[in-house]
Write a structure and sequence with these properties.
It is built from twelve helices and 15 strands. It is an alpha/beta fold.
Length: 373
Amino acid sequence: MVALGKDDVLAELRKLSPPGDAKDIVAQGMVSDIFIKDGTVSFSISVPADRASQLEPMRMAAQRAVEALDGAQKVMVVLTAERQGGGNAPQAAPKSAAQATNPSGKAGVPGIKHIIAVASGKGGVGKSTSAVNIALALASLGQKVGLLDADVYGPSLPRMIGLKDQKPTSEGRLIHPLVGYGIKVMSIGFLVEEETPMVWRGPMVISALTQMLREVMWGELDVLVVDMPPGTGDAQLTMSQQVPLSGAVIISTPQDIALLDARKGLNMFNKVDVPILGIVENMSYFLCPSCGERSDIFGHGGAREEAGKLGVPFLGEVPLHMEIRTNADAGTPVVATLPDSAHTGAYENIAAAVLDQLLAGETNRQAPEIIFE
């Protein structure tokens, strides 16, 4: 069988035109870059914001046309709408029945009891490594756990959890998550090549995140851990506003600049009424593997002090250690492969503190007020 290529997809899309237009959507430059990997096809169609609802049938027609191609197993097509300067923001869609029954007004995901975000105000603080090991530690505590990689632009979980080059299967529009070390995992990294840059606009990122959350067959889970992108952009805000998060875990390193950015991330969750489960100080200290001497390379205790100032729990500290880094790169996270190590103990203590809050219902309390001095 001949492999499906971009030209095959474009040939089908050239048969489609917006209502009332003679020119097809490809000739009009409405089709984004097309990504194809192992039968999964994804692209966006750019349309005027005021015609987005009217052109939804055209999006569906494009999806059906590509799904009919030989070799197309999963097709993701979204409309991206850019509003020209001025005007009011688009009105939110009416709440569904599921949203109406949710006290938060946000539609939950069937079968999932708790969704928690692992977040940071900046990159490079070990957030994804922390998310993987916290998820595995929750599983070691007897929880049914899923792990969602919400970093569309820099997905790292396929490599970090030993699932690189594997792909999920699907049933119609629903995707089966992959399983790594006993937990269910979903990432855009399963659908595109590792070196492929994701040159997607915000609306397509949001659509992809929504599909990975709501069109994946998660089954019954106690906790879904979401590895959030770094920072406080569209993806983070959308997840916080549209998903009933039980809480957020903030990852920081001890130095002042990292804590400043962590405070920004914490403040974002506070603004959208997402409870803060606590702060983790990653790369807290360094123990020389040869002499055992301790060095506080990035300082020490800054995150604990910050948690005290902000009135949120301090969940624990994780050292800067070669084993954590090399095992993450190798796809053999320490919690799964070094269960008796001190590093695993640190992650298990963090997970236990998070689980205690979830089980005790403490995440229903009002998010803390942040006061800047």
